[in-house]
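Weekly puzzle thread! Below is a chain. First person to post its structure in C-alpha cell form gets bragging rights.
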Amino acid sequence: MLSAYSDDDRPSPVVGALGAIAIFIFVAALALVFTRDSESELPEATRIGPGKIVFASDRKDDFDIYAMNADGSARTRLTDSRSVDSYPSWSPDGSRIAFESDRDGNTEIYVMNADGTNQIRLTDSPDADAFPKWSPDGSKITFSSYRDRNFEIYVMDPDGRNQTRLTRDPASDLSSAYSADGSKIVFNSLRGENGDIWVMNADGGNPVRLTEDPAFDELPVWSPDGSKIAFQRTRTEARGFDVWVMNADGTDERQVTRTKTEANAPAWSPDSSKLVFQSNRSGGSKILVVNADGAGLAQISGGGSGFGDYVPQWQRVEPPLATTTTTAPPAPPTTRRPTTPTTRRR
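Winning reply:
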C-alpha cells in the first residue's frame, strides 16, 4: 500500500521527520521504479486536448516539479531545489502552482508562478504539511497536516494566512480536494476499519462516508463538472492499485484501469472526460491518460529504468479569444452638418 500507517491506524513517529511525501508517494514511487511487468508498451498520446500537465519527477536525480503540454510535449523543469518537491496543484486560473517540499528540512506547502518563479513558503509547522489542493475560486488551499500529532485536514488562504483546522478525529484524515462548486471537500480517512473516501462541507461539518470496501481507498479528486469522484483503490487479491470512479454521492463504483502493477494518483481532464495518472507499467513510473470509461489508454511521458514521473495534475490553459475583422458598409451621403460628438458609454 502507499501508506505507512501502523496497525492501530496511527502514523508512526517517523512521519514528522520524513514528511508526507515519504509515506504516501515518495517511498512507494521509488520502489515502483524497479518493478517490471509483462504488459505491452502503449502508444504515445496524441490529440489529448488543450492545457498543461504539471507533475513531479526524479529524472534529474532530485524530485522536482515539471510542466508539459497535455500530449507530453514541451516539458519544462520548474523547480531545482536539491530536495523533494512533489504533489503539485494548479490554481484555477493556471497562473500559480502549489506544491509540497522538504527543502527547508520539513515537508511544507509552497506556491510559485506557473513558470517556476517566485517560490514562496506558505506553511511553517513543526511537522509535515502536505497534499495541497486549490478551491475552484482560488480563494483557499486545502491540505493535510501532522502538526497536531495526527493527520488532519486544514485550509488556508493562498498567501498562507488563516490556517484553519477542519477535521478533528482520532483517525488520520489525509489527501483532500474541493467539489466543483466549492461547497464540499472530499478526503480519505482511516476512520473505518480500512481507508475509505469521505465527504464533508467546506467548513468541516457533516462528514459522510462514501466508500466502505475491504481495500484501501485514497487520493480522491472531484471531476470539474461535479458529477464524479476518482480515486485509487488497492487490490485485495494482489499487490497494487487501480483507478476507480464513482458518482459524487458514492454510488455506481466502477473500475477504470486493470493493470498488473500500479495505477494511482488520478487527476481529471478539464472537460471531465479523461483521467491522467501515474503507472509503473512495463517498468519505471510514467504518466498515462485514459478515458473515464477505461478506453483509450495511452502514454504521455515515459519513466526510464533510473527515473520516474509521478502525481500528475491537469489544468486547462485557455486559448486566446478569436478575433474577427468586419468592414462596415459605407455610410449614405448626407447634406446635414455633423453634430458635436458625444461620449458613449463603453
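Puzzle host: Confirmed. Bonus trivia for everyone else. The chain has one domain: 14-315.
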